[in-house]
Amino acid sequence: MTTPRTVLITGGAGGIGQGIAREFIAAGEHVILADRDATAVNAAATALGAEARALDITDPAAVAAAFDHFSGAGGVDVLVNNAGILSVHGAVTELDPADYRSILEVNVLGTFVMIQAFARHRIAAGGGGAIVNISSIGGRQPTPGMGAYESSKAAVDSVTRWAAIELAPHGIRVNAVAPGPVLTPMLEQGMPEGSPARAAWASRIPLGSLARVDDIAPAVAYLAGAGAAHITGVSLPVDGGQLLT
Question: So what's the pLDDT on residue 1?
C-alpha cells in the first residue's frame, strides 16, 4: 500500500483551494489547508476532514515557522500554491501603483516565499517532492483592465520555470496549472447562469463554457503525482481552448 503524502494547499479556504483539497483527499492523501483567514480555513478544514493552518504567505518568518512545525510533524510532500488575489482592476493609465504592488506581493512574492521554504524543507529531508503553482491563461492572453493580475500570473509562470530548473537536481518537480475563468461560488454569484457577462466570457471559449472547480483539481493532482514523474517546468492551460482564439 502506498504511504499517503502530505499536501499543503495555500488559499485553502477559497473555492478552488477546497476543490483541490477534495481531489487529494479522495485519493487518500493527507491535506493541510493554509489561508490567512483563520476562521474560514478552520471551517473549510473541518468540513473536508483536513488539517488547517492560518498563514500569511507574504510573511517569510511566518512561513519558515510553519515549515519548522511541518518538519516536526512528518513533513510536506506536495505544495500547491493556490493563494492569490484578483481584487483590483484598472487601466494602465489609471491603476494606482500601490494597488498593483498589493497584487504582486501576494501572487508573486507570496508564491516565491512558499516555493523557497518548501524547497529548503525538501532538500533538508533528502530531496523529492512536487510543487504545483496556480497560474492563469491571463499571463499569456491579455484582458483590458486586468493587467495587474495577468502580469502577476506571467511572473508565476516564470518563477515556475526558474524553480524547476534549479530544483531538478534535488528531485523536486515544479509545474503550474493555468486556468481560464473558473466558476467558483463567488464568480457564480457575480455571473449567474444566463447573465450577459457569463455569456460574453463563454463566447471566448471554444468548448463553450467556463471551467468548474472540478475541471481544475484533477490537473493539479496529475502534475503532483507519479504519472507526471518526468514533467517539470510546464504551465498547463485548463481553459476550454481559450488560448486558441
Answer: 58
